[in-house]
Amino acid sequence: MSNRVQLPAVRTIAAAFAAVTITASLASCSATGTDGRPEIVVTTNILGDVVTELVGDQATVTTLMKPGADPHSFSLSAQEAASIENADFVVSNGLGLEEGVAQHLTQVDAAGIPHFVASDAFEPLAYTEGDAEGMDDPHFWTDPARMSAVVDALSSQLATDVAGLDRAALDASVADYAGQLDELDAWMQDQFDTIPSASKSLVTNHHVFGYLADRFGFTVVGTVIPGGTTLAAPSAADFAELSADITTAGVSTIFADASSPDDLARALANEAGIDVRVEPLFTESLTPAGGGAETYLEMMRANTERITSGLAP
Protein backbone atom coordinates (compact mmCIF):
# COMPACT_ATOMS: atom_id res chain seq x y z
CA MET A 1 0.00 0.00 0.00
CA SER A 2 2.98 2.32 0.33
CA ASN A 3 5.92 3.44 -1.76
CA ARG A 4 8.73 1.06 -0.83
CA VAL A 5 12.38 2.00 -0.66
CA GLN A 6 15.54 -0.14 -0.75
CA LEU A 7 16.96 -0.55 2.75
CA PRO A 8 20.68 0.07 3.23
CA ALA A 9 22.73 -3.13 3.48
CA VAL A 10 23.37 -2.82 7.23
CA ARG A 11 19.67 -2.46 8.01
CA THR A 12 18.84 -5.36 5.72
CA ILE A 13 21.33 -7.63 7.49
CA ALA A 14 20.03 -6.54 10.88
CA ALA A 15 16.43 -7.20 9.82
CA ALA A 16 17.36 -10.66 8.56
CA PHE A 17 19.14 -11.46 11.85
CA ALA A 18 16.10 -10.27 13.80
CA ALA A 19 13.79 -12.44 11.72
CA VAL A 20 15.92 -15.53 12.45
CA THR A 21 15.98 -14.71 16.16
CA ILE A 22 12.22 -14.17 16.26
CA THR A 23 11.57 -17.43 14.40
CA ALA A 24 13.62 -19.38 16.92
CA SER A 25 11.93 -17.70 19.86
CA LEU A 26 8.42 -18.07 18.48
CA ALA A 27 8.88 -21.78 18.01
CA SER A 28 9.58 -22.25 21.73
CA CYS A 29 8.03 -19.42 23.74
CA SER A 30 4.26 -19.47 23.24
CA ALA A 31 2.72 -20.02 26.68
CA THR A 32 0.13 -18.71 29.06
CA GLY A 33 0.99 -15.73 31.21
CA THR A 34 2.55 -15.95 34.66
CA ASP A 35 -0.86 -15.51 36.29
CA GLY A 36 -2.30 -18.44 34.36
CA ARG A 37 -4.41 -16.36 32.02
CA PRO A 38 -3.92 -16.69 28.26
CA GLU A 39 -1.84 -13.99 26.57
CA ILE A 40 -3.53 -12.26 23.61
CA VAL A 41 -1.52 -9.78 21.54
CA VAL A 42 -3.32 -7.33 19.24
CA THR A 43 -1.66 -5.10 16.66
CA THR A 44 -3.94 -2.02 16.47
CA ASN A 45 -5.54 -0.19 19.38
CA ILE A 46 -8.96 -0.24 17.68
CA LEU A 47 -8.94 -4.03 17.60
CA GLY A 48 -7.29 -4.09 21.03
CA ASP A 49 -10.29 -2.29 22.47
CA VAL A 50 -12.70 -4.71 20.81
CA VAL A 51 -10.80 -7.79 21.99
CA THR A 52 -10.74 -6.43 25.54
CA GLU A 53 -14.50 -5.90 25.42
CA LEU A 54 -14.98 -9.54 24.44
CA VAL A 55 -12.58 -11.34 26.79
CA GLY A 56 -12.71 -8.98 29.77
CA ASP A 57 -10.34 -10.10 32.51
CA GLN A 58 -10.28 -13.69 31.31
CA ALA A 59 -7.08 -13.00 29.36
CA THR A 60 -4.18 -10.58 29.35
CA VAL A 61 -4.57 -8.36 26.28
CA THR A 62 -1.45 -6.57 25.01
CA THR A 63 -2.04 -3.89 22.37
CA LEU A 64 1.04 -3.03 20.34
CA MET A 65 -0.07 0.26 18.74
CA LYS A 66 -0.12 3.12 21.23
CA PRO A 67 -2.98 5.68 21.27
CA GLY A 68 -2.52 8.27 18.56
CA ALA A 69 -0.03 6.18 16.55
CA ASP A 70 -0.22 5.67 12.79
CA PRO A 71 -0.87 1.99 11.93
CA HIS A 72 0.93 2.39 8.60
CA SER A 73 4.23 3.38 10.18
CA PHE A 74 4.42 2.07 13.75
CA SER A 75 7.06 -0.54 14.50
CA LEU A 76 7.96 -2.71 17.48
CA SER A 77 10.51 -2.42 20.23
CA ALA A 78 12.38 -5.53 21.35
CA GLN A 79 10.02 -5.80 24.33
CA GLU A 80 6.95 -5.58 22.10
CA ALA A 81 8.39 -8.20 19.75
CA ALA A 82 8.86 -10.44 22.77
CA SER A 83 5.18 -10.08 23.63
CA ILE A 84 4.31 -11.60 20.26
CA GLU A 85 6.86 -14.37 20.85
CA ASN A 86 5.05 -15.33 24.06
CA ALA A 87 1.49 -14.96 22.78
CA ASP A 88 -1.13 -17.66 22.93
CA PHE A 89 -3.25 -15.84 20.35
CA VAL A 90 -2.55 -12.93 17.99
CA VAL A 91 -5.07 -10.55 16.40
CA SER A 92 -4.20 -8.33 13.44
CA ASN A 93 -6.07 -6.16 10.95
CA GLY A 94 -4.64 -7.49 7.69
CA LEU A 95 -4.69 -6.16 4.12
CA GLY A 96 -1.29 -4.54 4.60
CA LEU A 97 -2.34 -2.04 7.26
CA GLU A 98 0.39 -2.90 9.80
CA GLU A 99 3.30 -2.50 7.41
CA GLY A 100 5.93 -2.19 10.14
CA VAL A 101 4.78 -5.37 11.87
CA ALA A 102 4.38 -7.61 8.80
CA GLN A 103 7.65 -9.47 9.40
CA HIS A 104 6.63 -10.38 12.93
CA LEU A 105 3.20 -11.59 11.84
CA THR A 106 4.82 -13.83 9.25
CA GLN A 107 6.90 -15.39 12.01
CA VAL A 108 3.80 -15.86 14.16
CA ASP A 109 2.21 -17.89 11.38
CA ALA A 110 5.40 -19.86 10.79
CA ALA A 111 5.51 -20.81 14.46
CA GLY A 112 1.90 -21.99 14.41
CA ILE A 113 0.62 -19.51 16.99
CA PRO A 114 -3.16 -19.04 16.50
CA HIS A 115 -3.63 -15.83 14.53
CA PHE A 116 -6.92 -14.11 13.73
CA VAL A 117 -6.83 -11.72 10.77
CA ALA A 118 -9.83 -9.37 10.93
CA SER A 119 -9.98 -8.76 7.18
CA ASP A 120 -10.64 -12.47 6.57
CA ALA A 121 -14.12 -11.96 8.07
CA PHE A 122 -15.57 -9.82 5.27
CA GLU A 123 -15.32 -9.09 1.55
CA PRO A 124 -12.90 -6.17 1.23
CA LEU A 125 -13.51 -3.14 -0.93
CA ALA A 126 -10.89 -2.03 -3.42
CA TYR A 127 -9.57 1.50 -3.78
CA THR A 128 -10.98 3.09 -6.92
CA GLU A 129 -8.45 5.88 -7.41
CA GLY A 130 -5.09 7.22 -6.30
CA ASP A 131 -1.78 5.43 -5.85
CA ALA A 132 -3.49 2.37 -4.34
CA GLU A 133 -6.17 1.94 -7.04
CA GLY A 134 -7.23 -1.70 -7.33
CA MET A 135 -5.70 -2.71 -3.99
CA ASP A 136 -7.83 -3.85 -1.05
CA ASP A 137 -8.79 -1.21 1.50
CA PRO A 138 -7.95 -2.25 5.10
CA HIS A 139 -9.98 0.48 6.87
CA PHE A 140 -13.05 -1.68 7.48
CA TRP A 141 -13.78 -0.38 11.00
CA THR A 142 -15.46 2.78 9.66
CA ASP A 143 -18.45 0.50 8.95
CA PRO A 144 -19.95 -0.93 12.16
CA ALA A 145 -21.70 -3.68 10.20
CA ARG A 146 -18.35 -5.02 9.01
CA MET A 147 -17.01 -4.70 12.53
CA SER A 148 -19.94 -6.88 13.61
CA ALA A 149 -18.85 -9.52 11.11
CA VAL A 150 -15.32 -9.34 12.52
CA VAL A 151 -16.60 -9.72 16.09
CA ASP A 152 -18.65 -12.77 15.10
CA ALA A 153 -15.69 -14.49 13.45
CA LEU A 154 -13.27 -13.44 16.20
CA SER A 155 -15.50 -14.82 18.95
CA SER A 156 -15.63 -18.21 17.22
CA GLN A 157 -11.85 -18.40 16.91
CA LEU A 158 -11.32 -17.24 20.49
CA ALA A 159 -13.59 -20.01 21.71
CA THR A 160 -11.74 -22.58 19.61
CA ASP A 161 -8.11 -21.52 19.94
CA VAL A 162 -7.73 -19.90 23.36
CA ALA A 163 -7.70 -22.44 26.17
CA GLY A 164 -9.05 -21.38 29.53
CA LEU A 165 -11.76 -18.97 28.39
CA ASP A 166 -15.16 -19.50 29.97
CA ARG A 167 -17.44 -20.05 26.97
CA ALA A 168 -20.60 -18.82 28.70
CA ALA A 169 -18.91 -15.61 29.82
CA LEU A 170 -17.43 -15.09 26.35
CA ASP A 171 -20.81 -15.64 24.68
CA ALA A 172 -22.43 -13.13 27.03
CA SER A 173 -19.78 -10.50 26.31
CA VAL A 174 -20.04 -11.08 22.57
CA ALA A 175 -23.84 -10.78 22.63
CA ASP A 176 -23.64 -7.56 24.64
CA TYR A 177 -21.05 -5.98 22.36
CA ALA A 178 -22.84 -7.10 19.21
CA GLY A 179 -25.95 -5.36 20.52
CA GLN A 180 -23.96 -2.16 21.06
CA LEU A 181 -22.66 -2.36 17.50
CA ASP A 182 -26.19 -2.76 16.17
CA GLU A 183 -27.29 0.28 18.18
CA LEU A 184 -24.32 2.25 16.86
CA ASP A 185 -25.13 1.33 13.28
CA ALA A 186 -28.76 2.41 13.62
CA TRP A 187 -27.80 5.65 15.39
CA MET A 188 -25.24 6.51 12.71
CA GLN A 189 -27.85 5.95 10.01
CA ASP A 190 -30.28 8.28 11.80
CA GLN A 191 -27.62 10.99 12.09
CA PHE A 192 -26.48 10.72 8.49
CA ASP A 193 -30.07 10.80 7.26
CA THR A 194 -30.18 14.45 8.38
CA ILE A 195 -27.59 15.33 5.71
CA PRO A 196 -29.12 16.15 2.30
CA SER A 197 -28.09 13.66 -0.38
CA ALA A 198 -26.44 16.43 -2.40
CA SER A 199 -24.19 17.24 0.58
CA LYS A 200 -23.02 13.71 1.34
CA SER A 201 -19.57 14.30 -0.17
CA LEU A 202 -16.40 13.45 1.72
CA VAL A 203 -12.93 14.90 1.31
CA THR A 204 -10.54 13.34 3.81
CA ASN A 205 -6.87 13.28 4.68
CA HIS A 206 -6.30 9.95 2.90
CA HIS A 207 -8.49 7.08 1.76
CA VAL A 208 -9.87 5.88 5.09
CA PHE A 209 -13.67 6.23 4.86
CA GLY A 210 -14.45 4.03 1.87
CA TYR A 211 -16.36 1.51 3.98
CA LEU A 212 -18.35 4.21 5.76
CA ALA A 213 -19.20 5.75 2.38
CA ASP A 214 -20.29 2.36 1.04
CA ARG A 215 -22.44 1.61 4.09
CA PHE A 216 -24.12 4.99 4.49
CA GLY A 217 -24.35 6.37 0.96
CA PHE A 218 -21.58 8.97 0.86
CA THR A 219 -19.47 9.92 -2.15
CA VAL A 220 -15.73 10.19 -1.62
CA VAL A 221 -14.80 13.22 -3.74
CA GLY A 222 -11.10 12.79 -3.08
CA THR A 223 -8.30 12.78 -0.53
CA VAL A 224 -5.55 15.19 0.37
CA ILE A 225 -2.98 12.38 0.29
CA PRO A 226 -3.54 10.33 -2.89
CA GLY A 227 -3.59 6.80 -1.56
CA GLY A 228 -4.62 4.36 1.15
CA THR A 229 -1.64 5.15 3.39
CA THR A 230 -0.37 8.22 5.19
CA LEU A 231 3.11 7.51 3.83
CA ALA A 232 2.35 8.94 0.36
CA ALA A 233 2.50 12.63 -0.57
CA PRO A 234 0.40 14.82 -2.90
CA SER A 235 1.85 16.58 -5.91
CA ALA A 236 0.93 20.07 -7.12
CA ALA A 237 -1.18 18.45 -9.85
CA ASP A 238 -3.01 16.33 -7.24
CA PHE A 239 -3.80 19.47 -5.25
CA ALA A 240 -5.06 21.36 -8.28
CA GLU A 241 -7.28 18.46 -9.42
CA LEU A 242 -8.80 17.92 -5.99
CA SER A 243 -9.33 21.66 -5.55
CA ALA A 244 -11.37 21.69 -8.76
CA ASP A 245 -13.37 18.65 -7.62
CA ILE A 246 -14.12 20.32 -4.28
CA THR A 247 -15.38 23.42 -6.02
CA THR A 248 -17.53 21.42 -8.43
CA ALA A 249 -19.05 19.28 -5.66
CA GLY A 250 -19.66 22.27 -3.39
CA VAL A 251 -17.87 20.59 -0.50
CA SER A 252 -18.28 22.55 2.73
CA THR A 253 -15.86 20.67 5.00
CA ILE A 254 -12.55 18.86 4.58
CA PHE A 255 -11.95 16.19 7.21
CA ALA A 256 -8.39 15.80 8.49
CA ASP A 257 -6.86 13.18 10.76
CA ALA A 258 -6.99 14.34 14.39
CA SER A 259 -3.68 12.59 15.15
CA SER A 260 -1.75 14.28 12.31
CA PRO A 261 -0.95 17.90 11.39
CA ASP A 262 -3.71 19.43 9.24
CA ASP A 263 -1.37 21.67 7.24
CA LEU A 264 -2.06 19.88 3.96
CA ALA A 265 -5.82 20.00 4.47
CA ARG A 266 -5.70 23.72 5.22
CA ALA A 267 -3.46 24.35 2.21
CA LEU A 268 -6.01 22.51 0.08
CA ALA A 269 -8.83 24.64 1.50
CA ASN A 270 -6.88 27.76 0.53
CA GLU A 271 -6.17 26.32 -2.91
CA ALA A 272 -9.88 25.76 -3.49
CA GLY A 273 -10.48 29.47 -2.99
CA ILE A 274 -13.82 28.93 -1.31
CA ASP A 275 -15.08 28.92 2.27
CA VAL A 276 -14.21 25.39 3.36
CA ARG A 277 -13.90 24.27 6.98
CA VAL A 278 -11.23 21.82 8.15
CA GLU A 279 -12.62 19.43 10.76
CA PRO A 280 -10.52 16.76 12.55
CA LEU A 281 -11.72 13.16 12.68
CA PHE A 282 -10.40 10.15 14.57
CA THR A 283 -9.45 7.92 11.68
CA GLU A 284 -6.98 5.13 12.44
CA SER A 285 -6.21 5.29 16.13
CA LEU A 286 -7.92 5.69 19.45
CA THR A 287 -6.85 8.48 21.78
CA PRO A 288 -5.36 8.57 25.26
CA ALA A 289 -7.75 9.15 28.15
CA GLY A 290 -9.62 12.41 27.73
CA GLY A 291 -8.87 12.63 24.01
CA GLY A 292 -12.45 12.07 22.88
CA ALA A 293 -12.04 8.62 21.31
CA GLU A 294 -10.84 6.26 24.03
CA THR A 295 -12.85 3.32 22.66
CA TYR A 296 -14.01 2.19 19.24
CA LEU A 297 -17.62 3.07 20.05
CA GLU A 298 -16.63 6.56 21.25
CA MET A 299 -14.53 7.10 18.13
CA MET A 300 -17.38 6.19 15.81
CA ARG A 301 -19.87 8.38 17.64
CA ALA A 302 -17.49 11.35 17.70
CA ASN A 303 -16.78 11.01 13.97
CA THR A 304 -20.46 10.69 13.15
CA GLU A 305 -21.26 13.86 15.06
CA ARG A 306 -18.45 15.78 13.35
CA ILE A 307 -19.32 14.57 9.86
CA THR A 308 -22.98 15.40 10.40
CA SER A 309 -22.15 18.82 11.81
CA GLY A 310 -19.76 19.52 8.96
CA LEU A 311 -22.11 18.54 6.14
CA ALA A 312 -25.64 19.11 7.39
CA PRO A 313 -27.23 22.51 6.67
Automatic annotation (TrEMBL):
Keyword Cell cycle (UniProt): no
Localization annotation: Cell envelope
One cellular component term from this protein's GO annotations in UniProt: cell envelope
InterPro entries referenced in this protein's UniProt entry, alphabetically: AdhesinB, AztC-like, Bact_metal-bind_prot9, Lipoprotein_PsaA-like, ZnuA-like
Domain of life: Bacteria
UniProt GO BP: cell adhesion; metal ion transport
An example Gene Ontology molecular-function term: metal ion binding
Residues annotated as signal peptide: 1-27
One Pfam family hit: ZnuA
Keywords: Metal-binding, Signal, Transport
Transmembrane region(s): none
Similarity-based family: Belongs to the bacterial solute-binding protein 9 family.
Name listed for the protein in its UniProt record: Zinc ABC transporter substrate-binding protein
Gene source species: Pseudoclavibacter terrae
